[in-house]
Structure formats: C-alpha cells, structure tokens
Amino acid sequence: SLMSLPLCHPQLExxxxxxxxSSCPEPFxxxxxxxxxxxTPDLSYTSAAVLAEQLFLRRVLSLTxxxxxHLMAALTSFCSxxxxxxxxxxxxxxxxxPGEGAEQTKLMCELVEECLEPHSVHLVLSQVxxxxxxxxxxxxxxxxxxxxxxxxxxLLDLLVLTLCQQAPAFATSLNYARLVTAVLTVCxxxxx
Length: 192
What we know:
- One of its GO terms (cellular component) is Fanconi anaemia nuclear complex.
- Pfam families: FA_FANCE (PF11510).
- With 192 residues, the chain is mostly helical.
- It has one domain (9-148): Alpha Horseshoe (Serine Threonine Protein Phosphatase 5, Tetratricopeptide repeat), CATH 1.25.40.
- It is 68% helix and 0% strand.
- The relative contact order is 0.09.
C-alpha cells in the first residue's frame, strides 16, 4: 500500500494532490479515512497533520451550513485516532479565521463534546486562550467545560486570568456570563 512507504512531507502532499483528496466526494472520504485508521503502524504525527490539512481544511473553512453526514463521519473517525495533529491543523485554522464562522464554531463545539480525547480537549483550550477572546469562541470554551475534565492548573489559571482581563469587553454578553458560571461550577474545587 502507498501509505506503508515512508513518505516525506512534499511527497505526501504530492500524493494527496494527485489523488485530489481535498476535493474528492465525501463518501470516498469516509472510506479513505477508515482505510487510514486500519493502517499499521500508525501514521507519524507529521503525516497525520498533512492529511488532516489535505482532507479537511478546505472543506471545514468553506462550511456555510452544517457538515453532511459523510463529512461528519470522516471527521470523527480521523479525530478518534489522530486528534492531536487534527487539532493543531484544523482548530488553529478556524481560530485564525476572521469573522463569525458560525458553522466552524458549531463544528468545533461538537468535536470537543463528542470526539476528542481529554488531552486534545486541553490542547483546544490552550489554542483558544492563545488568541484574543471573541464572542465566537465563548461557546467553544463552554463546550470544553461541559466535558467536566479536571484541567491542568496552569491552563485553569490562564482561563481564569483571561476571563478576568476580558470582563469589561463582555459586560453585556450572556454567553460570557454563562461561561463564568460554568467555570465556577465545574472547577469549584480548583478555583479558590
């Protein structure tokens, strides 16, 4: 099989482009992802990141309505095994996207709630806290807290600090008020 060859970065991108993976029909994408998950040994981090970008980036950034059943199936199956590289590529791109990005935000919330391993949920949280907080990102933070995971102390500190610093900007935001309540509820044993 092609993927059992040790491919370097440009070769893998070339292969993806040859196979037209970024625009292949979604049912094929689902099959391709299940084939990827069955490969042994697992893909390297770099290969998984290249594939996450080639398979999903364009599709996710161009969403204007909820993802199709097929796209969601492909995303969740890929995420189940390669959530770290997936978050590094996709979440980062969505966070840098200007504007509302309502569908992208909903998708991120859904992945956080349903698919990601705890360590990847922490990664998403740290990625969100690296960018200026906006109304668009509040639901993602809410989804992270909804997982009821115990957060690493440094991440929790950063979250609380960010929320305190940003309070004046969100004085009239209902989502912000909900988020602060969630932090106090979920992390009460950690927040003094």
